[in-house]
Amino acid sequence: MAKYEITFITKEEGNSKNVEGLFETSGVKIAANRELGVRTLTYPIAKQTVGRYFIFQFEAEPDKLRELEKLLKLKGGMLRYLMTKPVHQSEPRPVRIPRPAKATPPTTPVKAKAPEVAAEAPVKPESTEKKAAPRAKPAAPKPKAPVRVKKAPEVSKATLEEKLKELTGE
C-alpha cells in the first residue's frame, strides 16, 4: 500500500464524518486527518464564497484511488480536492498551517527632538562607492516619410462619355 495525502474543500456545512465515510466506502485506510476550519475562498467556487478545509493522510492501493476520485467527484458538497503522493516519507507528518495574524492598526512613532546644533553642522565624508550612471533615454522613433499620391491626369467630360459608350456597347 502506498501513502497519499489529500487536501479538499467542502461546503461550509460539511464535516469530517461525511468525508471519512467516502474513504471507508472506497476501501482506503486513513492514517491521519485534520480539519483546518472554515475559510473565505479567494474566488467563488460553485457560487460558494466560504469553504471548510480538510487534510487527510491515507494508505491505499493504486487501483482504489480511481474509485476514491470517482466518489469525490460525485459527492455534492465537495468543491475542490488535490491528491498527492508524499515523496520519501516513512510516517505521516503533522499538518500545521498557521492562521493569518489579525491586523493591528499601525502605531505612529514619536519623533524625538533633535539636539540643537552649534553654528556649523558636521560635514559628511564623500562616499567611495561608485554611483550608477544615469540611464539613457530611449531614442525617439524616426518620423515616417510622407506618402506621395500621384494625381490622375485630367480627362475631359467628352472623353469620359466616349469611353462609357464603348464599354456599354451603344
Explain this structure to me?
With 170 residues, the protein is an alpha+beta fold. It has a domain of 83 residues: Alpha-Beta Plaits, CATH 3.30.70.60. Helix content is 21%, strand content 28%. The chain contains three helices and four strands. A four-stranded antiparallel β-sheet has the order 2-3-1-4, with helices on one face. Strand 2 and strand 3 form a beta hairpin. The longest helix is centred in the middle third of the chain and has 13 residues. It is flat, with a radius of gyration of 38 Å. 11% of the residues are buried.
Which short descriptors sum up this protein?
Alpha-Beta Plaits; alpha+beta; four-stranded antiparallel sheet; 170 residues
Whole-number mean pLDDT: 77
Write down the secondary-structure element order. Answer: EHEEHEH
How far apart are the termini? 96 Å
Number of helices: 3
Strand order of the largest sheet: 2-3-1-4
CATH domain class name of the domain at 2-84: Alpha Beta
List the uncertain runs: none
Give the tally of β-strands. 4
- For the record, the CATH architecture of the domain at 2-84 stands as 2-Layer Sandwich
Largest β sheet strand count, sense and barrel closure: 4 strands, antiparallel
CATH superfamily of the domain at 2-84: Ribosomal protein S6/Translation elongation factor EF1B
Estimate percent helicity: 10-25%
CATH topology of the domain at 2-84: Alpha-Beta Plaits
Judging from the principal axes of the Cα atoms, what is the shape?
A: flat
